[in-house]
Write a structure and sequence with these properties.
two-stranded antiparallel ribbon, mainly alpha, single chain
């Protein structure tokens, strides 16, 4: 709920937990855990602190929105102040965005560990206490998923260090396979403890439920099944977890693709489609000054007229690649919502672009600030939420869990997987009945290999510019070849507009080592047990 109480929660969380690196200093103002976690209110405050870490500047409130290269072959950054950084695949271990990503993840992990260690003495109903523990397990697991996909082997910290001494806080990296296994173990624990969507009045996608747990477990299993861990037995587990979400009967595709994103922009929760999202509110001022994000600002349509409050300003950092624009089929309604087909004039009017030309100039259009309800609109901060898990993703993960599994030859599973992909496509093409065959839209595949290739394309069309693409390409073993291919397209001309120059830099800089980031040099300095990633 968006109210003054949440703001107090966020303040209290920052006082309780402070900044988190693997090497902690004793904070000057600190509420002892032994004197806290006594009431249900204490526990809820602490939980909000864990959620708040996902909204840190290193994660979903800022850098993830187009500044970390996560759109891979589908989108690139065009923003002069980001040149020479990870945003352009010009990566160094001292990049502050890589460090803040690492620290925000470990901040969430530290807060989750503290709650799990101290919640036992809280005076509250046992089922609510269990649910709080389940949420903490989920959030710890999700932060580790963010870390292991970016860095590979990472320190697996499951307890609060007893002191700030080097022997207590310097921890070696844990192999990625073990980290994934612990992620799945935590998610299994969370699934046993958290409430289902049907058990929570007025439930929103900003709150962890069993559906969110199972959906993220499916994602973790797909990542583990693919490269670099290569555990193909996990495809069956991904299908199993996705099946659990589908079997609840509580989720369905919103009939309108664009309405999915208008809901995020206008803070209208749709738990049927949006299973888990990062919650932002306010416009960077007043009591909600620390609870806003930059969704729609960093990854919005460029507009600089601060005097026109109808549009909302954006530097237009995230552009579509020409490859992505041409990937959409004729009649796919998702294209012109995902990739805005227009630019704004100074007075706010729209100039539609001639798409007989190449599309590098076009911006991400999913989070359009013109739909914001808040007034006045802030130049830097927005209340727009960001999706982490949508139901369409669950359907596609089920399908991939079937298509990619070398041991699954079940005809029924294959038929169901094809149908789930087609439901996503029918929504994308504006079909009224998502369960009725649509020969002009449905994929026609004869075997699992053809289905898997269709899924790879469909994930781009459905989830493009939602910051999942790089992880998809890495686990498929296609990251470098795809980036090289789009680089070849970007170099077919020598135009000097900034977006052409940026595209050539972005795709030209990407190398094979970029499947992982370097361990931040600051963390290497304070934790002498860390070893740098290969190539860095």
């Amino acid at each position: 709920m968006r109210n003054y109480k949440i703001y107090l929660m966020l303040i209290l969380s920052s006082l309780l937990f402070g900044r988190c690196s693997l090497l902690e200093k004793e904070p000057l103002d600190f509420v002892s855990p032994e004197s806290y976690y006594k009431t249900e209110e204490d526990v809820q405050h602490a939980l909000m602190g864990i959620y708040a870490a996902l909204g840190g500047g290193g994660l979903y409130s800022n850098n993830i929105m187009g500044k970390l290269g996560l759109s891979a072959d589908l989108g690139f950054a065009d923003y002069s102040s980001e040149k020479g950084t990870v945003a352009y695949y010009d990566v160094i271990a001292s990049d502050t965005k890589i460090l803040s990503y690492w620290q925000d993840c470990y901040r969430g992990i530290s807060r989750a560990n503290m709650l799990l260690e101290h919640i036992g003495g809280a005076d509250m109903a046992q089922e609510d206490k269990d649910d709080a523990r389940g949420q903490a397990y989920f959030l710890r697991a999700y932060n580790y998923l963010l870390l292991v996909t970016r860095f590979g082997d990472v320190p697996l910290i499951l307890n609060t260090p007893p002191s700030g001494k080097a022997e207590d806080v310097q921890v070696a990296r844990t192999p990625a396979r073990e980290v994934y296994l612990k992620i799945i173990e935590d998610l299994d624990s969370a699934a046993l403890l958290t409430y289902g969507v049907e058990e929570i009045p007025n439930v929103t996608g900003a709150r962890v439920t069993k559906s969110a747990v199972w959906g993220i477990a499916a994602r973790a299993c797909l990542y583990m099944a693919g490269q670099p861990v290569n555990e193909p037995g996990m495809y069956a587990k991904a299908k199993e977890y996705a099946s659990k979400v589908i079997a609840t009967g509580k989720h369905e595709l919103n009939p309108s693709y664009e309405q999915v994103f208008i809901n995020y922009i206008q803070d209208k929760y749709d738990i049927k489609e949006s299973i888990f999202e990062v919650d932002f509110y306010g416009t960077g001022s007043g009591v909600y000054s620390s609870a806003s994000g930059q969704v729609g600002r960093n990854n919005g349509i460029k507009y600089s007229n601060v005097d026109n409050d109808d549009i909302g300003t954006s530097p237009g950092i995230l552009h579509s690649s020409d490859y992505f624009h041409k990937l959409f089929g004729e009649g796919d309604l998702r294209r012109d919502w995902t990739i805005a087909p227009f630019t704004y004039e100074n007075d706010g009017t729209k100039t539609f672009q001639d798409m007989s030309d190449i599309a590098w100039k076009l911006y991400c259009g999913k989070f359009r600030r013109e739909y914001e309800l808040s007034r006045p609109k802030n130049g830097s901060w927005t209340p727009i939420n960001f999706p982490i898990l949508r139901y369409s993703d669950v359907l596609l993960m089920y399908a991939e869990g079937v298509a990619a599994d070398p041991d699954n030859n079940d005809a029924g599973d294959f038929e169901k997987a094809v149908e789930y992909v087609n439901q996503v496509r029918r929504r994308g093409y504006g079909k009224e009945d998502l369960f009725a065959e649509a020969p002009d839209v449905d994929i026609q595949v004869m075997n699992k290999d053809e289905l898997w290739e269709a899924i790879k394309t469909e994930r781009a069309l459905e989830l493009g510019l939602e910051m999942l693409r790089k992880d998809d390409l890495i686990r498929w073993g296609e990251f470098y070849t795809r980036m090289q291919y789009v680089n070849s397209l970007a170099n077919q001309n020598s135009f000097t507009s900034s977006y052409y120059v940026s595209a050539r830099l972005y795709y030209g800089n990407a190398g094979e080592r970029d499947v992982l980031w370097p361990i931040p040099s600051y963390e290497m300095g304070v934790n002498r047990k860390l070893v740098q990633n290969k190539g860095w």
